[in-house]
Design a protein that fits this description.
single chain, about 650 residues, alpha+beta, 15 helices, 20 strands
């Protein structure tokens, strides 16, 4: 039994056994090797982004986007906040610039002219900058103080009940605004008190949390649940709690946020990325928000006396910084979506994605993480994705399965009627390999919010396909029509159109290629997962569909089993083809298909005799660039088995 206090989840937390199993493994493994991250390196990443945009500040203090040649969204207050953290760290040459950006930000909120009608995102950024800059500029702070007192939240922000009178619209915007309003209240500048905040939290935000502590964004009756807006909302509510919020909802909110932090820890990939799902997926700000959440909970675990969890969260935060830094351009800016297209191509961008806004919002979130850093005396511990094996099913309407063995993670989406989040195995990431090789994103049935510079928009994941007697091929990624027009804002009700899944983990020994169990020590508990997902229709021409996955450290074996009158069965294989700058080399035979990219490869081999593989010529668009579609086929069969192996090209 551990001799220290535990920073852990309540008994109601669905993944509590997995969490405690991980804790035991982490204690046994001992400290992880240094990952090379410290506060100086983190601040240097923030600084590289901030200084890139300093030349784009105009005489009013606004940051002007070089692509649209206008001030966009919350770029300016994000710049003010991130620059203020750098001022606090000793970069006094940024003081005047940060102060000018703050003055402008306050002014546009008070005057009701925030760029792109996004004032709700301003208060937390403005207040952090105000708090940090006030000691350096006491006279100017008096001007800021009087201006900040003028803000009337119900009138000056967009997502309020006074403006919308619609509970379904009290989404992440409203929670983000409230976090900043709490900072304004703490500074004795607010016109509304904790009762006003508590009402919003109690009625519209606490009900959105799942038992896993995940925040379901979207309409209350059918949240569309992007992981990006789960993490962004929890980030801001954690800021609020960290700042001292002690209202009527504090205890319940604290429990939700702690559970959510554990869920982030357990699902972080070996490359420091959160799971993809829904809009804004694979934007750098996702991991910047996660960096703050992990930093804040590392500090909380340290205060609780739990150095194992403090070390785990601290290392997780570092890896989130690493995930962002990996996409830094030569001029200091970030590729805001994980591909190599030039920013003006907007490939994989959402309709609202803006280069300046999301560079600077990312920098501000990373700066927030620096403020909450637990300190460099915390010893990093191995992450869940580095040790042990687990199969986790997200709750609520997140409809995602996350399976990991040491150094490898796979993500399956299970929504069968959502054309924006297709079902099937959508991502495989492995330590030491490029994040995109697996690949890292699926193709969509519909592009939804997402814009693509090139490529065909179509459903593509690792998934079953089948040919019905009339000669038509169908794929699981094509999903089940919901029976209603797709509304990208409202999302999909999982009940529409039918369809569901059953996840079953298989407790059996798994043999590797040599016939020994699991790994070098023969302990498959630490090395392998085996699980099945049964998909329930209505699926055209199929009575039942069962997919089986055996995940080992160096090999993934997949079997699809079909019931129905079918001419042929098969498997779709998504192959990394282009990141927008570098093209992969794809080769195939009747038994295998392989993509080589940036010194790594992913290869799929079909194990059934007489199988064939067809490679589609037309590339498919994904957030990361372009994919190629391969289809494995077995005639007159009722099952197909194939393997997936990732590695370095030798």
């Amino acid at each position: 039994m551990s001799k220290y206090s535990k920073y852990t989840a309540e008994s109601t937390y669905p993944w509590r056994d997995a969490l405690e199993n991980y804790r035991t493994l982490a204690e046994q493994a001992g400290p992880a090797p240094s990952d090379g991250w410290n506060q100086a390196r983190k601040l240097a990443l923030v600084e590289s982004v901030v200084r890139t945009y300093t030349p784009y500040q105009d005489s009013t203090g606004a940051i002007i986007d070089p692509f649209s040649e206008a001030e966009r969204y919350y770029s300016t207050p994000a710049y003010a906040m991130a620059a203020s953290v750098l001022v606090q760290a000793g970069h006094m040459d940024l003081l005047a610039s940060a102060a000018s950006a703050l003055s402008h930000s306050i002014d546009v909120v008070v005057k009701g002219c925030a760029p792109d009608h996004h004032p709700d995102f301003f208060p937390v950024l403005m207040m952090r900058a105000y708090i940090l800059l006030k000691p350096h500029m006491p006279e100017q702070a008096k001007v800021w103080t009087e201006a900040l007192k003028k803000i009337q939240p119900e009138q000056d922000y967009v997502f309020t009940m006074s403006k919308m009178n619609n509970p379904n619209r009290m989404i992440n915007w409203n929670a983000i605004m409230i976090s900043g309003e709490y900072l304004r209240l703490r500074e004795h500048l607010a016109s509304e008190g904790k009762d006003w905040m508590d009402r919003y939290l109690n009625l519209y935000h606490l009900p959105r949390f799942t038992p896993l502590g995940l925040y379901q964004d979207g309409p209350l009756d059918r949240p569309n649940c992007p992981f990006s807006y789960d993490i962004a909302t929890r980030y801001h509510l954690d800021v609020m709690l960290e700042a001292g919020y002690d209202g009527a909802c504090a205890a319940e909110l604290k429990e939700h946020l702690r559970h959510g932090a554990f869920s982030t820890l357990l699902t972080l990939s070996p490359l420091g990325e959160i799971p993809p799902r829904g809009r804004s997926s694979q934007h750098q700000w996702n991991e910047a928000a996660a960096a703050y959440v992990c930093s804040a909970h590392a500090t909380q675990a340290l205060r609780a006396g739990d150095r194992v969890m403090a070390g785990a969260f601290a290392r997780a935060a570092n890896w989130c910084f690493e995930a962002v830094e990996r996409w830094k351009m030569d001029d200091g800016r970030l590729k805001i979506v994980r591909n190599e297209y030039p920013p003006e191509a907007r490939h994989g961008y959402e309709i609202y994605t803006n280069h300046t806004g999301y560079n600077l919002w990312t920098a501000a979130a990373l700066a927030h993480a620096c403020l909450s850093d637990p300190g460099e005396d915390v010893t990093g511990m191995y992450l869940p994705s580095e040790i042990g094996n687990r199969v986790l099913q997200a709750d609520g309407w997140f409809e995602t399965i996350i399976a990991s063995v040491p150094g490898q993670q796979m993500i399956l989406h299970t929504a069968m009627n959502d054309p924006y989040t297709v079902p099937g195995l959508v991502r495989i990431q492995q330590a030491g390999l490029p994040g995109l090789i697996g690949p890292s994103a699926a193709g969509h049935v519909q592009s939804g919010f997402t814009e693509f510079a090139e490529g065909e928009v179509g459903p593509l994941s690792y998934c079953p396909v089948w040919k019905t007697p009339e000669g038509n091929w169908h794929s699981l990624a094509g999903g089940i029509p919901s029976g209603a027009d797709y509304d990208r804002d409202a999302g999909i009700n999982p009940a529409d159109g039918g369809g569901s899944i059953l996840l079953e983990t298989v407790d059996q020994e798994v043999e590797d290629d040599s016939g020994s169990l699991g790994g070098d020590d023969g302990n498959h508990q630490d090395q392998a997962n085996a699980f099945t997902v049964t998909w329930f229709g209505p699926l055209t021409g199929i009575d039942s569909l069962r997919t089986r996955y055996v995940q080992q450290v160096d090999l993934l074996t997949v079997t699809y089993e079909f019931e129905g009158e079918l001419e042929a069965v098969g498997a779709l294989i998504p192959l990394m083809f282009s990141d927008g700058r570098e093209q992969a080399v794809i080769t195939h035979s009747n038994q295998a298909v392989r993509s080589e990219y940036r010194g790594a490869y992913v290869e799929s081999n079909v194990l059934d005799e007489g199988a064939t593989i067809h490679l589609k010529e037309q590339p498919v668009a994904s957030r990361n660039g372009l994919l190629k579609e391969a289809r494995m086929e077995v005639s007159d069969g009722r099952s197909i088995t194939f393997t997936i192996r990732l590695g370095e090209v030798t």
